[in-house]
## 1
Amino acid sequence: MEEKISSVPSERAVLAGIVSYGSDAFIDVDDIIDISAFTLEENQIIYTCAKKLLENSSSIDLPSILSAAQDVGLSEAFRDRVPKGYIKALLNFDVRLENVRQHAVKLKKLEIARDIRRRAKKIISSISDVTGDETIDTLISIGETPFFELSSSLNNSVEDKPIALGEDVDEYVEYLKENKGSMLGVSSGFSRYDQAIGGGFRRKCVDLIAARPKTGKSMLADNIGLHISKNLNIPVLILDTEMSKEDHINRLLARFSGISINDVSTGKFSDTDGGKEKISQAAEKFKKIPLDYITIAGKPFEETLSIIRRWIVKRVGFDKNGRTNDCMIVYDYLKLMHSDQINDSMKEFQVLGFQITQLHNFAVQYDVPCLSFVQLNRDGITKESTDVVSGSDRLIWLCSSFSIFKTKSDEEIAEDNGASGNRKLVPVVARHGAGLSDDYDYINMLMRGEVATIIEGQTKNELLNSNSQQKDGFDNTVKKQESFSFDASHENEEKPF
């Protein structure tokens, strides 16, 4: 027979406190426990009746309890299950008001212990159905998901009550004074983009960048991940749905060395002047940076979240206060993994909506920043608004910023003969940032695909203002943006444009 995880004396002490002290005791315990904290049926009935009664009263007596039982439809259960004289016995139970909460805390811990045992049984049952065809990540997820869900629910329950916003404001102001900084979040390496979205990638937030296929979004992800991991020494996890590990290595070796990706991937660098030395130096730099990669192609989204959890626990860690250390998650990119995710009752945009919801909740729970990429629909070829992304509504609701990365049109490139780059980054909406100067502004970007490099330039309006100033000074020539330049040997330096 299974031994009960309970404390009958503590259950009675809590009920005795509520019956004796009324709302004074109930307020002390209501934020900790509910009916599931009690294991005896009679105690569950009394707690339910007392809770109902104290909605409109501050004290409890036997007639009131009986009336409350009738109101909640438990009069018959009260008569059959609650022993005669039990309420009187509770009134005579000697418990001090200041001790009632301590007993409630004990009941909550015992409830958690029962929940853990229940989840462990569920794991044993689920693991018994394993066929051997599952992936290792799937098996690990079976074991860890129930307990991560428990941890999440406990974290939510702790914060699930109103707090006075001004209560700790003095301490917060002092913290701001002692921790001055120009960047609220993790810098992307692109200063204008950082400013537009409100100071880089913030904790508890998911920022979205949308692009059409073959535009360079994975290259943008690599450049951002490289800046954060190398220049800021912050661990970065790149979750990729399409590219292989070798593809990323080839790109980053090209980025470090300045040798073309084709020469790196084919080994032809060894035939070029200084090629071997440059690649060797690039490899040495590469090995020292905290940049991690994993392919998630074909994996269920829940399994992907389990992978991120394990990475945070094993690679990132927590500080002495239990807060996740600085890190960055780059998800490339949100999409359906299986066609069977779409059915008559679940459309593609709904599935993507659930994914961004889960990703947002994960970022909040683990206090981490996340940059995710998403595919533009065909409208994104000509339009630059929030309705050009697949599953747009829910994605836009939950993201902290939404930007579009796209190839410049022939007309835009012809304006200055390509001197302002071949790509543009358009911050469309931002919860924390001011965006750019107007709805038609964008950040000029230069993508040098052969060496996997993306460089930020000036905004469109900055260039227009610069040209206007030149003309006001009686110089009627149109000033072009200074040429983009990149020197692989100094790639860790900030490059103002």
## 2
Amino acid sequence: MCVEQFSVEWLTYVNVIVQDKKVISVKFDRKPVDERIESRLVKKLKKDLERYFSGKKVEFNYPIVLKVSEFVERVLNETSKIPYGKTMTYKGLAEKLNSKAYRAVGMALSKNPTPILIPCHRVVSKRGLGGYSSGVEIKRELLRLEGIL
């Protein structure tokens, strides 16, 4: 088992953990992790995240490990289709899944182990930003970074 990790500095540290060339975690934190990078895939991911946080449009197509329920996986898969610079409401996302349970969609998004790569920050409330597992201020700044706000 090969575990690689790195941090990218933005408003806070964005810590990424990759196991066997699959992303298992992306977390916003106050402290960086000790860098351990071996594979080209992880070097490319770090470079892509640095480009993204500098305001460049980046499409993240990396293998991700999702250890979540079937419903959460469906929500996250649909969320990953929301393009850079666009948003969708919780209700709109629920409708894409043929569901009326938009609050359940919000709860499912809170279980996203890889924010940014699965862009749950692009799902907003019809009345404003809505919530975000790393805080509404981070969500606001991510949307600003993409030119949405």
